[in-house]
Sequence to fold (320 residues):
Amino acid sequence: MRIRLAAALSAVAATALLLSGCAGAGSPDASPSPSASSSCLLNAKPGKASDAVKVAGSGKDLAVTVPAGTDVDALTNAERTVVTKGDGKEVVPGDLVAVTYRIVNATDNSVLDTSAHGTDDQVPALLDPSAQSLFVVALECQPLGSSVVLAVPGKMMGSGQPPIVVYAQSVKKLPTVATGKEVAPVEGMPAVKLAKDGAPTITIPKADPPTETKIANLKQGDGATVGSGDYVIVQYRGVTWADGKEFDSSWKRGAPAQFQTTGVVTGFKKALEGQKVGSQVLVVIPPADGYGSQAQSGIPANSTLVFVIDILGTVPTSAP
Fold:
């Protein structure tokens, strides 16, 4: 069995981990307990199980071993032991960081997942409690550069799941805006102006919208290429062509978003796949590649959509 990011770091896991660690008196409606930092969600503590885990080697030779007799499944809450203390700023939920990690089955030490993809041993991780809870719990409230061991009983991961041990290190913070080389604007496309923080303002031209999806790079990145089905981390703003009104924006929410390329409308998928990390993409999506005749929240039926997308990271779905 292999636990991919989509499963092991799911919203279900987040709910179990965070509520079981933070709620008082076993009540899911209880207020979170105070922690060392107001931004900490769980601030898991060390224990016998997490302290017992052995970590040896580095990079692709890293080995994580749970000694015989260590009963991770008997734990009632996750345990976290700091292996090495970093010297950077404290990592908090909402950060975007490069992470090295291994996830092993605590009963037999088989590797369930690893960051060792291709020639690299790091992946971008958006510390969003609703999507990547294991990394949030493992890395939050520790200085950047820290490495930790997190021991999690199977019941906290869902019915029938094995107990796991996560080794994770926050390597560096990643930019939350596209950093690629600027590209000249394409005639006929909406005009885009960036604020100091990188948030785009989109001006729609006085013309009829295109009948096919149109894509133009505003910045050309040189990072990893987004593949079909990848989990992509982005900043984005969406407006309707008809009136230029915003209907969705990660900038407004104050943090990047992450989703699978196969889980968005066709036009957005076309704008992502094949692009390189660091790119900023402008895409105009006609109804046929958008929501068609189905109205959405803030989007009338048969709307042409316009997005500006900063591509910040991508995680392949293919097994290492």
